[in-house]
Specification:
The chain has 13 helices and 24 strands. It has 438 residues and is an alpha/beta fold.
Length: 438
């Protein structure tokens, strides 16, 4: 199959699709299975490339992973073993998940090898919080001359007090996956509290962990000697939900997203309403539609939960190109997440990006030469173009722009979108989009 999608744009997306489990939860829950003495079952797993990558990583470490269709994944960690660093390196590809294997592998095997990490090119994406936290537990981190790092725990892992400089999702998960089996109590301050993290805590609790989440971003974990497998139904992907909702808004469409849930999407729903979109929350999902007439411009800042997610930003920006007036978007989570706007400009959007913080939220990127604020002036008539997907979320935004534009666009590199959007070609077809593989 080619890596190009030909999109005949200009018609609204209408129809119903089913959303699946959250990419940014499922991969971590799969890693958690390494901590159990008995097999785990994870349900509502999306068919996305990231799941394949984590499956391969677990298999390299002796975990057997069986896809049992509607019954989900069965993960059996009874024969965990060391993997060859070269194999891990070759297999990890662009994934950032290997870093989260550290805690579980240290508990099971006493050592872990982490290759140089990939992931979307949306900023520097350092792992200093991860390594610092692991050291606090008593791990020893050695940088390897040929690339990657080796982590050992000669004296075992002990509970500790950690305060994150920033509420990082990955670092919070690192601490959780390490502390549950460390000796004694761990206190994590300034933790991330994204719904995907709370679902991971639910999984760990099912396995036998003792974890409390206090107000003010403090998580306490009492280490236990043994954890069992779990049976869990993954929460819905709220990024997939917001992406399709924005596609409906930008194309003047009307979509029903089966499985979308309100509590995890409150902040998005407020913004969607302020822009002029309509939604209707039902028991089995949420309907999103463009009611006709003009959309309104807004001022928005991305933030950690419960703020407006950084991953909702790119699809929303495409919808904002269709709103009347000037919208301002201040990105405070990643320093370089406006690269995707180059293609939108090529398609006729008026978007300027700035180094200044155009907003009041405390931001780590001011005065540091990062183009992390955008001003979108609309409405703009988008026209077709030949574009190349830059990263996962930016790529889906390009797709939305091509759907909203008049004429036929060629979108190259759509394989990147498979990383996080299940069967998006089929879903586009179900919503009446005129697309074909080029
Ligand atoms: N950071 C550091 N040092 C660290 C870790 C993070 O400085 O050791 C910084 C990052 O550079 C970034 C900020 O902290 O500026 C937040 O990063 P975080 O650790 O929260 O992100 P992550 O765990 O690497 C996950 C998702 C991202 C999502 C972010 C924020 C996964 C696999 N990835 O990344 O998802 O944007 O949380 O919610 O869970 C995506 O799905 O497209 C995606 C990029």
């Amino acid at each position: 199959m080619t890596d190009t999608l030909i999109v005949h744009g200009g018609s609204p997306l209408n129809g119903r699709i089913r959303l699946r489990g959250a990419k940014n939860f499922v991969s971590k829950a799969m890693v958690a299975s390494l901590l159990g003495h008995t097999p785990s079952r994870l349900r509502n797993v999306p068919a996305i490339r990231d799941v394949g990558v984590v499956t391969g990583l677990l298999e390299l470490h002796g975990v057997s992973v069986h896809d049992q269709g509607e019954d989900g994944l069965l993960l059996d960690p009874s024969e965990v073993e060391r993997a060859h660093s070269a194999d891990i390196d070759a297999h990890a590809g662009t994934s950032r998940i290997p870093i989260l294997l550290c805690g579980p592998l240290l508990h099971r095997l006493g050592e872990a090898f982490i290759p140089d990490l990939g992931g979307c090119r949306i900023g520097d994406r350092p792992i200093n919080y991860h390594l610092e936290s692991l050291r606090r537990f008593g791990a020893v981190v050695d940088k390897l001359p040929g690339g990657g790092i080796r982590i050992t725990a000669p004296d075992g892992l002990r509970g500790t007090k950690i305060e994150l400089e920033y509420p990082s999702v990955g670092a919070t998960e690192q601490v959780l996956l390490t502390a549950v089996r460390a000796e004694g109590v761990t206190e994590l301050k300034n933790s991330a509290i994204e719904p995907e993290i709370l679902d991971l805590i639910a999984v760990l609790q099912k396995m036998g962990a003792i974890i409390s989440v206090d107000t003010d971003r403090v998580i306490r974990i009492e280490g236990v000697d043994r954890l069992e497998g779990y049976d869990h139904y993954a929460l819905t992907d709220r990024i997939e939900a917001a992406s399709w909702a924005c596609a409906a808004l930008a194309t003047k469409g009307d979509v029903f997203l089966e499985g979308a849930t309100q509590p995890e999407m409150m902040t998005f729903l407020n913004v969607f309403r302020k822009v002029g979109g309509r939604f209707d929350v039902r028991q089995d999902g949420i309907r999103f539609w463009h009611p006709g007439g003009d959309l309104s411009s807004i001022v928005l800042e991305t933030d950690v939960h419960p703020g407006f997610m950084t991953d909702w930003q790119q699809p929303l920006v495409v919808a904002l190109t269709q709103a009347s007036g000037l919208s301002i978007v201040h990105e405070t989570v990643y320093e370089q997440r406006f690269g995707f706007t180059d293609a939108l400009r090529e398609m006729g959007a008026t978007i300027q990006v700035y180094r200044e913080c155009l907003g009041g939220a405390p931001c780590r990127f001011g005065q540091r030469n990062f183009l992390h604020s955008a001003v979108v002036s609309g409405p703009s008539k988008l026209h077709s173009a030949e574009i190349t997907v830059p990263d996962l979320r930016g790529g889906f935004s390009h797709l939305i722009a091509a759907l909203a534009a008049e004429g036929t666009s060629k979108v190259h590199g759509i394989g990147l979108i498979d990383r996080g959007y299940e069967h998006f070609g089929d879903k586009l077809a179900a919503l009446g989009a005129m697309v074909e593989r080029g």
